[in-house]
């Protein structure tokens, strides 16, 4: 589709304006993160005069990021991997019709997007689990991970859509060769699903790494705090030390930004498969 | 088939190992390595360290003092290990408090100003507060026969620790909050004296303004600091100075939120907000406000006496004092402070470690430990014969604290259920009158408040 | 519908079902079950006080949602939620579609633009709220200085009774525009090029070709986006929690549910009833939206 010169110019101009709206806030925070508190008070907006690398070191210790970081890493990695696995266990047989009532099961799982907010009873459930079992439920790492693991959400739907596009003949050929179900899923199907898995990884990881509401409800002990709680350490207690807070923001967001840059090229393909075909 | 089964097994092993991992993490939290089961049933295994779980909110100076006490406690009683958790204040704390007590996962918990809001015979249909529901359900330990209760002033225990003739809570300190810190140097520089009447007060503020000094700073973004001067106005103006009478009157229909006295309260605060409080105060948060005052950017700050240690730390050279808001033209009436009980301890009756909780409270209540706590917190002590060695308390506050301790509106008032946002949380919410708020006059807000009050009447 | 199962016979046929039970169990235990229980709770006087009894109270909680003293505030929250949903759905999808169409004409650096616009989704609500909290700080934030220079005006942003909600809507759209854009982009890329070329030969105008060729083909992504923003906007409370914490006239239904559950009274019937009302409203809007969209989709 060839657009005229003037409309192309207009397009670039529109994108440029939006880029400013998207990039400036992030650059601003980045810039502040290198300022000393005094410099920030004198001139919050100007380009940093003397770069304070120490800010990051200080923020890392003040925000207790060392502990929180490893907690969040555990939650994110385990719950993301589990989500992908159980979503595959759900999506494949449903997409293929290898279980009875697969159409009904698909709808039942889809319902998860519309159900009434389960917050009230979920909270009671987590408390009951803690009291009855102890190792799972309220204020346990496992309880939180299981709560965050879902085989019925957006990942399940994307997987189902994508698997439908994979030829059924492949199943049959593999079956003839005596390939087992699980080996087929993990060694043959999964490699074919790279784009949609990449999308699933990033969407799931975002939801867990950045979660701050869930931990407020379900992880009250400092030993279980996730990385987002580190940001709270800078509020109030240190009189809203914005440069420290800016460092905290950079620390919290860096890992996902790195993950995102590595797998972002897959994401449009994944979104295409999941969102539209499902 | 074997392969398939092994795959199933593998996945279940994966799940189980996670379970172990979660359980292990939990054990590590306890340090003593109690089996999680034990923790739930509350029977510590003998010979091992047992954990005392304390829940409190974040307030740096107090937190540090309590951590010190915890350290000493663990030294003296090596069989205990204290797990001291702090959350953000207010709603966040309330949320944690409820979750923990519902989960039976706390031994000692703090509450702000104990035993308030309990329905009285003049409050038909009032909501039963959390603490009362907990006590009624047997979740809070009865402290009546604990010897350490005797360490506290009997009047304070009766006022803020007793329910149905039994002691359930330890009020650990009082704070006054109906006044302003003032910068003595700025006052001297402009030849100003501490005002004793409302007219004098306005004169002082006008002078400051003329000299291009910002008169008052207050942390409007957090909203509650705006209540502090209002407490002073309410205590001196409502019911002609008998606040309790006015409050009961509101319930009985003999007083109203839009009567002359209530409107006067709102109107005086509106005057301050419109003319004398720093521009953009609704954007200043509580953590930032003291720095405005401590660096001389404002001559006064509306804040509670508990913040004196914070202000002193922010600028050790600053000379500051405190005076009650001169609410009326009657200097004698104005000359006292209004306050509340602050941190109040409860012990959970069904927590994992009640015995440890009582031990900790006993240790905390020892005069030596209590003194270090009260000093750090900046509270007025609730134990007798405690030397706070605080020049601020002895010189600045004591002149205004003779006679019985006057409680603030938010402690005395009991709201009707579903009372509406303009009266919510036992407040009168002058933030709605702030420049840019939705009400242009005090009367408009007062009328809405009275409407909401009437709409909340039990049917 | 039974399909030939190629991976063995006999017991082996049950392996897929067995494994399917994992997502099923997680779903039922942590989501579906609690959801159903919440509906049941909405007819009771259940409390969060351990050991208290639960009685059925019929529709009392629903009555309280709408008619208890000063429930006007909850009705205000509902109206505010609708307003939020409407603006977010229209503006977010409008901007996203425009950006997707622009980017899709193979501008230089399109991968970069895509990445940048999606970045806020990656950052998450807690970080985004803080970033804009700094930008919108009334005292030291750059936006207020810009306002001052340009219009000689200063705002209180998240501390303003009249403007706070508007700024929250802005941040919400800023955050999720990239997500909608990506879905549109995916749809646009599935439009076969030759369809356009055919259009060009016929001499159709740009708007005509968009209306008659592109739009019907991206209708599925349109539907998905509409649903995502309707459901998303109706259930969002984290951004409110992180910016104003419900102060300054910014409470929505979802925020009320959270607040009543964790910070209100110990009675859990009311928040349960609120959840159900919220669910019914989402249902109505989703059904309406789907019906409207279906009319436009072309079979393919």
TrEMBL record, chain A:
Gene Ontology CC annotations of this record: plasma membrane
Chief location: membrane
Location of this chain's protein in the cell: Cell membrane
Chain ranges of the ABC transmembrane type-1 domain: 69-263
The keyword Cell membrane is annotated on this UniProt entry: yes
Keyword Transmembrane helix: yes
Family: Belongs to the binding-protein-dependent transport system permease family.
Protein name: Sugar ABC transporter permease
Provenance organism: Paenibacillus albidus
Automatic annotation (TrEMBL), chain B:
InterPro entries referenced in this protein's UniProt entry, alphabetically: Bact_solute-bd_prot1, SBP
Signal peptide range: 1-22
Residue numbers spanned by region Disordered: 26-46
SUPFAM superfamilies referenced in this protein's UniProt entry, alphabetically: Periplasmic binding protein-like II
Repeat among keywords: no
Superkingdom in the source lineage: Bacteria
Keywords of the record: Cell membrane, Lipoprotein, Membrane, Palmitate, Signal
Protein name: Extracellular solute-binding protein
Species in which this protein is naturally found: Paenibacillus albidus
UniProtKB/TrEMBL annotation, chain C:
Compartments, as annotated in UniProt: Cell membrane
Domain ABC transmembrane type-1: start-end pairs: 78-289
Annotated transmembrane regions: 12-33, 82-103, 115-136, 156-176, 215-241, 268-290
Biological process according to GO: transmembrane transport
Topology within the bilayer: Multi-pass membrane protein
Chief localization: membrane
Similarity field: Belongs to the binding-protein-dependent transport system permease family.
Protein name, entry field: ABC transporter permease
Organism of this sequence: Paenibacillus albidus
């Amino acid at each position: 589709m060839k657009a005229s010169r003037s409309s192309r110019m207009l397009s670039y101009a529109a994108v440029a304006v939006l880029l400013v709206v998207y990039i400036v806030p992030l650059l601003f925070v980045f810039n502040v993160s290198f300022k000393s508190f005094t410099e920030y008070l004198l001139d919050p907006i100007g380009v940093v005069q003397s770069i304070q690398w120490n800010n990051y070191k200080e923020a890392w210790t003040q925000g207790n990021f060392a502990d929180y970081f490893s907690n969040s890493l555990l939650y994110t990695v385990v719950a993301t991997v589990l989500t992908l696995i159980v979503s595959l266990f759900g999506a494949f047989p449903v997409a293929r019709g290898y279980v009875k009532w697969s159409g009904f099961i698909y709808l039942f799982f889809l319902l998860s997007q519309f159900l009434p907010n389960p917050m009230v009873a979920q909270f009671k459930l987590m408390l009951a689990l803690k009291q009855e079992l102890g190792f799972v439920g309220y204020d346990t790492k496992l309880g939180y991970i299981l709560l965050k693991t879902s085989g019925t959400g957006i990942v399940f739907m994307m997987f189902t859509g994508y698997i439908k596009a994979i030829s059924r003949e492949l199943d049959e050929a593999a079956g003839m060769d005596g390939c087992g179900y699980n080996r087929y899923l993990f060694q043959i199907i999964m490699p074919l699903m790279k784009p949609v898995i990449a999308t699933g990884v990033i969407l799931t990881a975002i939801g867990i790494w950045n979660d701050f509401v869930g931990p407020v409800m379900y992880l009250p002990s400092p030993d279980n705090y996730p990385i987002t709680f580190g940001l709270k350490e800078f509020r109030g207690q240190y009189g809203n030390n914005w440069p420290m807070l800016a460092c905290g923001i950079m620390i919290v967001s860096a890992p996902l930004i790195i993950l995102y840059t590595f797998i972002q090229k897959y994401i449009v393909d994944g979104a295409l498969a999941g969102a539209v075909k499902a | 088939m074997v392969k398939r089964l092994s795959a199933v097994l593998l996945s279940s092993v994966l799940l189980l190992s996670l379970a172990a991992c979660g359980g292990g993490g939990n054990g590590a939290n306890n340090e003593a390595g109690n089996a999680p089961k034990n923790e739930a049933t509350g029977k510590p295994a003998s010979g091992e360290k047992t954990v005392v779980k304390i829940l409190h909110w974040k307030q740096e100076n107090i937190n540090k003092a309590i951590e010190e006490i915890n350290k000493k406690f663990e030294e003296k009683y090596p069989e205990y290990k204290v797990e001291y958790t702090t959350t953000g204040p207010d709603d966040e704390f309330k949320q944690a408090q409820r979750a923990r007590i519902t989960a039976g996962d706390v031994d000692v918990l703090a509450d702000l100003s104990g035993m308030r809001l309990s329905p009285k015979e003049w409050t038909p249909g009032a909501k039963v507060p959390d603490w009362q529901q907990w006590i009624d359900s047997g979740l809070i330990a009865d402290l009546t026969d604990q010897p350490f209760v005797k360490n506290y002033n009997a009047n304070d225990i009766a006022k803020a620790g007793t329910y149905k003739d039994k002691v359930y809570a330890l009020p650990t300190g009082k704070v006054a909050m109906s006044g302003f810190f003032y910068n003595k140097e700025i006052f001297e520089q402009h030849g100003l004296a501490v005002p004793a009447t409302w007219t004098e007060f306005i004169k002082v503020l006008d002078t400051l303004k003329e000299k291009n000094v910002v008169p008052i700073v207050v942390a409007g973004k957090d909203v509650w600091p705006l209540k502090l001067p209002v407490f002073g106005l309410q205590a001196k103006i409502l019911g002609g100075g008998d606040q309790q009478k006015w409050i009961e009157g509101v319930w009985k229909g003999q007083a109203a939120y839009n009567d002359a006295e209530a409107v006067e309260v709102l109107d005086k605060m509106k005057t301050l907000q419109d003319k004398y409080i720093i521009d953009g105060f609704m954007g200043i948060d509580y953590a930032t406000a003291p720095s405005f005052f401590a660096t001389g950017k404002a001559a006064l700050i509306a804040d509670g006496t508990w913040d004196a240690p914070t202000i002193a730390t922010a600028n050790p050279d600053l000379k500051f004092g405190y005076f009650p808001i001169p609410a009326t033209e009657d200097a004698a009436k104005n000359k006292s402070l209004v306050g509340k009980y602050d941190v109040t301890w409860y012990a959970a009756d069904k927590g994992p470690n009640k015995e440890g909780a009582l031990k900790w409270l006993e240790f905390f209540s020892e005069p030596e430990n209590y003194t270090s706590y009260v000093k750090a917190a900046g509270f007025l002590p609730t134990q007798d014969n405690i030397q706070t060695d605080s020049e601020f308390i002895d010189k600045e506050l004591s002149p205004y604290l003779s006679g019985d301790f006057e409680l603030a509106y938010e402690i005395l008032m009991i709201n009707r259920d579903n009372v509406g946002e303009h009266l919510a949380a036992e407040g009168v919410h002058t933030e709605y009158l702030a420049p840019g708020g939705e009400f242009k006059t005090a009367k408009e807000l007062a009328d809405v408040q009275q409407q909401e009050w009437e709409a909340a009447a039990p049917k | 519908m039974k399909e030939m199962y190629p991976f063995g016979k006999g017991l082996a046929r049950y392996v897929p079902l067995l494994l399917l039970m994992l997502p099923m169990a997680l779903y039922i235990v942590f989501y579906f079950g609690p959801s159903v229980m919440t509906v049941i709770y909405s007819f009771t006087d259940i409390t969060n006080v351990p050991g208290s009894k639960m009685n059925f109270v019929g529709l009392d909680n629903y009555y309280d949602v709408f008619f208890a003293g000063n429930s006007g505030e909850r009705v205000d929250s509902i109206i505010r939620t609708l307003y939020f949903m409407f603006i977010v759905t229209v503006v977010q999808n409008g901007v996203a579609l425009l950006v997707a169409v622009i980017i899709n004409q193979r501008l230089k650096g399109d991968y970069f633009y895509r990445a940048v616009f999606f970045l806020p989704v990656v950052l998450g609500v807690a970080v985004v709220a803080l970033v804009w909290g700094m930008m919108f700080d009334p005292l030291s934030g750059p936006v207020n200085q810009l306002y001052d220079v340009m219009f000689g005006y200063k705002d209180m942003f998240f501390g303003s009774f009249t403007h706070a909600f508007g700024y929250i809507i802005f941040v919400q759209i800023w955050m999720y525009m990239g997500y909608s854009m990506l879905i549109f982009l995916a749809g646009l890329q599935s439009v076969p090029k030759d369809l356009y070329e055919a259009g060009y030969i016929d001499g159709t105008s740009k708007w005509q070709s968009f209306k008659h060729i592109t739009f019907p083909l991206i209708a599925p992504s349109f539907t998905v986006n509409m649903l995502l923003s309707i459901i998303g906007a109706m259930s969002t409370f984290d951004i409110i929690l992180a910016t104003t914490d419900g102060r300054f006239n910014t409470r929505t239904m979802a925020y009320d549910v959270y607040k009543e559950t964790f910070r209100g009274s110990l009675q859990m019937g009311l928040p349960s009833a609120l959840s159900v009302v919220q669910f019914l409203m989402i249902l109505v809007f989703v059904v309406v939206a789907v019906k409207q969209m279906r009319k436009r989709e072309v079979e393919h």
